[in-house]
Predict the structure.
Amino acid sequence: QLQLVESGGGLVQPGGSLRFSCAASGFSFDTYLIGWFRQAPGKEREGVSCIGRRSNSTNYADSVKGRFTISRDNAKNTVYLQMNSLKPEDTAVYYCASDPGWYSNLCTLNIEARYGSWGPGTQATVSS
């Protein structure tokens, strides 16, 4: 299993941008599907975006489509989440997680059980 660490969180005004990184250590990073999830205070964790092994597939939650972009650099064992046009409702702890892809080559946000390793999370706060 991979070990994952998120970075890039912080405080930003509405309409601003943040870029998260998810750095992985371990073997065969490019065989894993990677997802970003978030949990706001008092709410359940939800899927935000995910990406396939060689960026062949991506998925986004409807709430972030057109504003967030996921990408990966397998040479650097890193996945990125570029978040633009941020809204207060994007405030949450953001987690990256890895799916070994045993069940599908396509990433999914709907089956958290497929994601076996999780990072500790990074906070994003969108507020004026």
Summary: The chain has a mean pLDDT of 95. The first strand starts at residue 3 and ends at 7.
